[in-house]
Amino acid sequence: MMLDEYLRWLEHNEGLAVSTVVSYGGYLKRLQVHCADRGTSLLLADRRVLEEFTGPVAHQAGISLSGRRPLIAAVRSFFKWMHDQGKRGDDPAKQVSYPKVGKPLPTKISKHYAEQMLLRCDLATFAGWRDAALLAMLIGLGLRVSGLVGMTSSTLSVERLDNGHDVFFATVTEKGRKERRIPVPEEALWFLLPYLDHPEFKALLPGITLLDGSHLLWVQTNRGSCPAHDWFGEKRRLSTNGVRDIIQRRGQEAGVPDAMLHPHAFRHLYGTELVEHDTDRQKIQMLMGHSSLESSAIYTHLAERKLAEVVANANPLRGMNTRIHAMHSKVKAKPKAVESRGASGLLR
């Protein structure tokens, strides 16, 4: 079948994630049904039929403007492939345009809330260590959830740099099957290494060792409906939904707003911190695994703390000597004196 042939080609030639290939297949099967309803087929459909499917039909199906972009991408990719393969003499999808819609700023979790989530992990338990280590890797490396759950022991390596320091690196496979190699900060290791050295984790090793000799890093602690005799190897790997459940649970325990309780919120925090520490954009691109510098630019809009500090210290009004300046200086000084007395009282 032509559609199956395209999906096989897409998977093996375009380097797209399996989930993307599956999504494209779903969109195109719906298009196939739409074409049949209009008395045509994928081989004969014209631009009018395609624009109807990606416009009014998609709208009636409740697909948002931003949600239509992957739908249109699937349609355009498929008809370009048909044209390139000589299955059609034209490409009616070439002129099907993407909806013009602004890209919202991503929601990042604050450092305070990220810290509170780490504090909610009970380090007297194995599950607590696992959750803390998992959160620390999301926070400290800006991982996508696909890269996190795909980690194995072979993901981690230790290298000695020119300065004589040993540094851990994580090599993860993420979006579009692309690898990125990220230094693991020391603070993340404070959580990760005790987790990997935990007696309960060591006891699991025979059952979580894979065919290539490596072993899983993130394991399930609840087998659900999986039979006990079958709960080993890949079936013990923590899933992306499992990671989301951990984030939801720990976040709710810490009182984190729901809008921040998703894996990408930690990635956005990581990118924002890089900007606020004056990391140049090319290094941000490498550390974040972005395909273009434009993708990294979004974090400059989130770096509010650094901008606020710059304005507070460098604006022309600072240091002027007016009556209003003097009045506000006195107002600011009073709370400091109160805080100082309170702190000294605590010390006594």
From TrEMBL:
The lineage of its organism: Bacteria, Pseudomonadati, Pseudomonadota, Gammaproteobacteria, Thiotrichales. Residues 328-348 are annotated as: Disordered. Keywords: DNA integration, DNA recombination, DNA-binding. Residues 1-83 form the Core-binding (CB) domain. It comes from the Bacteria. Gene3D superfamilies: 1.10.150.130, Intergrase catalytic core (1.10.443.10). It holds the Pfam family Phage_int_SAM_1. One of its GO terms (biological process) is DNA recombination. One of its GO terms (molecular function) is DNA binding. This is Recombinase XerC. PANTHER family: PHAGE INTEGRASE-RELATED, TYROSINE RECOMBINASE XERD. Residues 104-312 form the Tyr recombinase domain.
